[in-house]
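Morning, I've got a small favour to ask if you have a moment. It would help a lot if you went through both lines with me. I owe you a coffee for this, so here goes:
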Amino acid sequence: PIDQHTPTFLESLRTSAFVALSHIIRLSPSFFSEVMAQITPKVFCRTLMEGTSRVQQACITMLNQALYQGK
């Protein structure tokens, strides 16, 4: 059985969540504001600085889509 409280499992879950959000935002860039309201800009910036490379890339993709939509 998988222990849902191990750091590896939690990091995998976090990575999957951020990657899924980046895919959703790619399809609907206006959803970015809803995501930012939930995770806050402070958490988003901290994730960009301290997250794993896949999570950082997902955040950059989300930000890129939001900025591209607002061109």
Residues 11 and 66 are 25 Å apart (CA to CA). The first helix runs from residue 7 to 27. The helical segments are 7-27, 32-39, 41-50, 53-69.
